[in-house]
Design brief:
It contains three helices and nine strands. The protein has 175 residues and is an alpha+beta fold. The protein has two domains: 51 residues; 119 residues, no CATH class. Strands 6-5-4-1-2-3-9 form a seven-stranded antiparallel beta sheet.
Length: 175
Amino acid sequence: MLIPIYAFGFACFALIVWAVTGKLPLTVRTRSILRASGILIGPLYFVIVFTFSGWVRFKTYDMQWSIGQSSYYREMLSRDKAGEPLVVIYRKVGNGTCFEQYYSSELAAYLTSLTASSVPVHYAVTYDFFKPRVYYVESIGALHLRDQNQVYSRINFQQFSGGRSGRDQFECFPW
């Protein structure tokens, strides 16, 4: 949506550089270098941005789960106003913990039906310049929360937080 605005801004910048360099007492070589940089900076910007931003990588982590308690946020109630239980999915990373917190009876029922104490959690992580910008939980075990880049839920849940207790949440998703 902003690409036409950026293109217009870079074109105006190039015209201003062209006009200003024509009025200044510069050598021919300096004037040529400034004009060329004024014209090329816009396309170069787009090449760099489109090359290194918006990369989506899919990551899967085995995560532990607990129902009815959160040691990450004390203000989280074991049940919400509708009576849905709190479900915390977490994994240890270094000295911190990466976690997701939901209120969902369907998710709680699914997790308690598992025989294992961990569940695979699939994420879609968008990176800009090799640093995460945003992430989505695609699925928790066999429960799909997103499908084909449309944000909707097949289970009734409210997601309250995700991140890393005590540190930057995006340390949970290294490149």
